[in-house]
Amino acid sequence: MRIVFAGTPAPAVPSLRAVAASAHDLVGIVTRSDAPLGRKRVLTPSAVAAAAADLDVPIVKADRLDAAATAAIAELTPDLGVIVAYGGLVREPLLSTPRHGWINLHFSLLPRWRGAAPVQHALIAGERTTGASVFQLVAALDAGDVFGEVRYDVPRGATAGEVLTDLADAGAELLVRVVDEIAAGTARAVPQTGTPTLAPKLSIADGALDLTASADVVLDRFRGTTPEPGAHVSFDGARLKVLAAHRGPDATLEPGVLTASGRDVLLGAGGGTTVVLKTVQPAGRSAMAAGDWWRGVRVDDPRVALPSATEATS
Questions:
Q1: How far is CA 311 from CA 129, 217, 272, 308, in A?
Q2: Residue 174 main-chain phi, psi, to 5 deg
Q3: Which string of DSSP letters, residue by residue, matches 49-104?
Q4: CA gap 62, 32 in Å, rounded
Q5: Is the CB of residue 179 less than 8 Å from the CB of residue 19?
Q6: Regarding beta strands 2-7 and 25-31, do their DSSP bridges make them parallel or antiparallel, or are they unpaired?
Q7: d(CA 26, CA 31)
Q8: Distance of CA 57 to the CA centre of its chain
Q9: What is the pLDDT of residues 228-277, one digit of tens each?
């Protein structure tokens, strides 16, 4: 089959490589335009564009799958469109341009966590099992029939970034298997069953750790927002990023209170629980061991800010 692949970030790269190495003909790659990154705002190609540089395949760079992108894809006469974390919606007439339409690799067990950040929301919710699904793309958000799925038990302490890396590899194998079945005419998709949950894109505010909650809840949010958009607390009026943390011992430490714990820092959470801070990044500085940061703290009553009464009840 002639396949057009659409994807943008690093988790899409294993699928791109798997499709390129398959028995099918990869005739085009669609990815978002180069974006300014870093403090110097240097225009940088997407992870998919960088990986595609070694492939002798036409690349379409587009931030929206508009009429121009649709025309460019149509000229490639694809039999099937494959999309993995492209970052934009596929609408008609592009949805029906390939003979077999489009299939999507999504990093959840649908219908749970439809949307842009499925792994992050699953971890924030405390789920210990997730997975990846390949489904037929339809106009409604992540609502198409499912060709196949792979289940995944979340390792203890794993962050969203680590889970996505694992799912990207497992999902790539699933994706190519489904492509092979579509080509052979043996693919069978089944409707999604169960109550859908939504996983919208996260903002920086979603990474704020609420220390009035128990340590387990705090750490679920830490893992779900690491590395992006970034877990953090507010200390002495500035954002302190939390890069590595784990469950601490139960202790009579008020929520938000900080104290030294050997080479680490102990942070009080709700219900007499604590979080151990291992690595942090103060505003405008590089990442450092929490103990090294602590030795430079010059605050009489060291504690992180807690949500206001209004925020806590909203």
A1: 30, 17, 21, 5
A2: -60, -45
A3: HHHHTTS-S-EEE-SS--HHHHHHHHTT--SEEEEES-SS---TTGGGSSTT-EEE
A4: 5
A5: yes
A6: parallel
A7: 14
A8: 27
A9: 999 999 999 999 999 999 999 998 899 999 999 888 999 999 999 999 99
Distance CA 126, CA 119 (A): 11
Contacts of 158 (CB under 8 A, 6+ apart): 123, 223
How far, in Å, CA of 242 to CA of 233, rounded?
7
CA atoms of 2 and 230, how far apart (whole Å): 39
Q: What are φ and ψ of residue 49, in 5° steps?
A: -60, -40
The CA distance from 6 to 108, in Å, is 19
d(CA 218, CA 101): 42
What whole-number distance in Å separates Cα of residue 230 and Cα of residue 223?
A: 9
Query: At 140, which helix (H) or strand (E)?
Result: none
Q: How far is it, in rounded angstroms, from Cα 253 to Cα 235?
A: 17
Distance CA(49)–CA(301), nearest Å, equals 49
User: Is the overall model pTM greater than 0.90, yes or no?
Assistant: yes
Cross-strand partners of 276: 246, 266
What is the C-alpha separation between 224 and 313, in angstroms, rounded? Answer: 22
279-300 exposure pattern, b = at least 16 Cβ within 10 A, e = fewer: bbbbeeeeeebbbebbeeeeee
CB-count burial class (<10 Å; 0-12, 13-18, 19+) for 182: buried
For residues 275 and 268, give the distance between their C-alpha atoms in angstroms, rounded to a whole number.
6
What SS3 class is residue 291?
helix
For 17-71, the pLDDT digits (tens) are 999 999 999 999 999 998 888 777 888 999 999 999 989 999 999 999 999 999 9
Question: Distance between CA atoms of 265 and 251, rounded to whole angstroms?
Answer: 13
Residue type at 288? M
